[in-house]
Amino acid sequence: MSILLSVMREKLSPTIEPTENIKKNYLQNYLRTIANYRKVIPMKKISVEDLLTWAFTQELGKAGVMADIGQGYSAAWMGMAEVAALGTIVDRSPNAFGVIPSFVYEGDPHPDAVSAGNAVHRLADHGFDIANGWNPMTDWADEHGLIAEEVARLAEEQRGRSDHLSGKHVVSLTISAAVLKRGPDWRADAAKAVMLTSKGKPVWFVKRTAKDSLGNAYYYEDNGFDARRQRPKKGAYRKWRLDRSIRGDVLSRLDWQLWQSALEEVHAWLSFKNRLSTYELLPFFPRRQPWNISKSAPFSAQAIEEQR
Q: N or C: which end of the chain has fewer CB within 10 A?
């Protein structure tokens, strides 16, 4: 009997392996299959922008379709039932990837699209910051330093907030750009400096010194125009202001640069070995300041397909 059991163990031993070995062999076979697949079928080259557009507009909407449907009903029937009962399709909540799921089940999303979606949502765990001296309006003339001053004020304001520089904002920004097939619109006409006037005439100022109740000196601005002599007082100066608010322009360019940083992060993560099975990413070079490109250049910084 013992001899028989021994023989049986010898015959069965090749098929009886510890769970760890089975998992290891399965992973090795999977990686070998992917490698062979890539040798037989060349990887499709694609830009990271086009990959995200494909993922978020064509594939990731397939995720979560069946989860919203009761057992025994098809997605197509549920869609027709909604139209018949209400005359329209009820609004649906975004799925786990942040896109509205389809109403008709079309199969599972492509694995590369899932990887792309995961890469984008990983950005939610990242933090972004604004470097000291940051100024995205260098293409605007700033003779009086008003633009640089306003940019510095807005940068400090954004550093004190958590929403605009948060990973969640960047995720939403990246998904929106993928769906719209374009990045944030950074184009804007330059703001102009205008002189402070009163009744059509320049207003003059002069600095004075005074002391408070504790004897501490402080400065204040006084009228710098001598009405009797009808001329500016000694040391008088004029003041300037911007002709409009540039807050929206500055934040739009901040969004552009955040989007470029997001694409750089996504590209690096997806370029790691075996993260994509069908597509191969083209090199990505972030364009952080397209507004500084010569106006005569044919490049248009708005369209994703032109960002290669």
A: N
In the chain, which ranges are continuous DSSP H helix? 2-12, 19-40, 48-54, 75-86, 111-121, 146-159, 167-180, 247-270
Tokens for 130?
């604004």
pLDDT tens profile 147-181: 999 999 999 999 988 788 999 999 999 999 999 99
251 contacts: CB under 8 Å, gap ≥ 6: 154, 158, 164
Sign of CA pseudo-dihedral 186, 130, 289, 272: negative
Return the closest-CA partner of residue 82 out of 72, 69, 71. Answer: 69
Give the Cα separation of 138 and 291 in Å (integer): 8
Other CB atoms within a 10 A radius of the CB of residue 51 amount to 25
- So what's the pLDDT on residue 274? 82
pLDDT single digits (tens) 70-85: 443 444 444 444 444 4
Burial 66-97 (b: 16+ CB within 10 A, else e): eeebeeeeebeebbeeeeeeeeeeeeeeebeb
Closest CA to 250 of 152, 169, 108: 152
Question: Taking a C-beta distance cutoff of 8 angstroms, is the pair 196, 204 a contact?
Answer: no
At 222, which amino acid appears?
A: D
Rounded to whole angstroms, the Cα distance separating 182 from 52 reads 11
- The structure's pTM equals 0.69
Quote the mean pLDDT of the chain.
Answer: 79
- Separation between Cα atoms, residue 85 and residue 80, nearest integer Å: 9
Burial (Cβ within 10 Å: 0-12, 13-18, ≥19) of residue 169: middle
Structure tokens at 138: 């260098």
In whole angstroms, what is the distance from residue 120 CA to residue 51 CA?
11
Which one is predicted more confidently, 6 or 208? 208
